[in-house]
Amino acid sequence: MASEHMIRFSPLPFVLLALVVLFSLQSRAEAQPFETGKILAVERHEPETLCCYSGTDTPLPSNVVEYDISVRLGDTTYVVRYQTATGYVPTTWVKDHLVDVRVDKHSIYLRTPTGEELRLPIVSRKRTREKLKGKLNIRSLEYSGLLRRHFG
Q: Dihedral angle at the C-alpha atoms of 20, 23, 29, 32, nearest 10 degrees?
């Protein structure tokens, strides 16, 4: 009689769970690798003042300090927002310092000196073109007529 009331366990939920875990681990392994970027600026972000509050409608001041960090990676400059309750900014996050960077669709991961990865939201991104320093731009010389005068 005891055998009639036995509960049968199906292996299907366990197999599905194993597949989900396997795919999530694989997607993490396929994540973008870190690249070397350059910090261009670290500026304290001042919150916008609200003009229309009065009396008890005034919001409480926040203890969170925000910084806008400009990072150049390749030909793109990203501005990301870093929030901290203590005011601490990693010591390597200073102007002209190299930093490990990984770009996602809406955020950037910066690696701290301790190896921790911090996910920061992208505030803006802008393609930059570095001017040629010490190199002649042949096309501009052609248009200015210098090539024809000297070589023509």
A: -100
